[in-house]
Write a structure and sequence with these properties.
113 residues, 3-stranded mixed sheet, 3 strands, alpha+beta
């Protein structure tokens, strides 16, 4: 195991932890969404869809046809929070009463969030 990589991961974990702590203390934005469970899972699995059109198209196809306008509203609300400088927000699935932390900054280095 590469020791430098491990140190970098530990430092990154502490930095993200500190950012999360600060976000919770100052008010973490929350967005309630009324979407099917499979859509919620994909929305929270990877945040690339927030900024990348190809990823967004995949998420959009998962929404029922009757919810296309709603899907765009959800994305716009999230983009607004990102533009306000938030790195994280909570998504609340109203159908299941489930909460997930959404990372609004997509990590371009490895394609994950």
């Amino acid at each position: 195991m590469d020791l430098d990589y491990t140190k970098a991961n530990i430092i990154s974990a502490f930095e993200i932890g500190a950012e999360l702590k600060s976000a919770f203390q100052t008010g973490l934005p929350t967005l309630a969404v009324d979407v099917p469970p499979a859509v919620f899972d994909d929305m929270t699995r990877n945040s690339a869809w927030i900024a990348e059109e190809e990823s967004w198209k995949h998420i959009l196809t998962m929404f029922p046809n009757s919810q296309t306008a709603y899907a765009h509203q959800v994305r716009e609300a999230i983009l607004k929070r990102k533009a306000e400088g938030h790195r994280f927000m909570l998504l609340f699935a109203v159908r299941e009463e489930r909460v997930q932390l959404l990372n609004l900054t997509h990590n371009l280095r490895d394609g994950s969030n």
